[in-house]
């Protein structure tokens, strides 16, 4: 039962990440690569996207 709940949680998080990727202002190539990474490696892809993907990483002086 626990694995089913964890799997459902990962699925929900992956769908959220894919939605955020598709609606982002990133280039089409970057969007495709992020979505493929999340689809191929659901948990690791989500964690990588969470660390490196969302938001604007520029520093404002």
From TrEMBL:
Pfam families: PLDc_N. Residues 12-54 form the Cardiolipin synthase N-terminal domain. It is a multi-pass membrane protein. InterPro entries: CLS_N. Its main location: membrane. Keywords: Cell membrane, Membrane, Transmembrane, Transmembrane helix. The keyword Transmembrane applies. It is found in: Cell membrane. The chain crosses the membrane at residues 6-22, 34-52. GO terms for cellular component: plasma membrane. This is Cardiolipin synthase N-terminal domain-containing protein. It comes from Roseivivax halodurans JCM 10272.
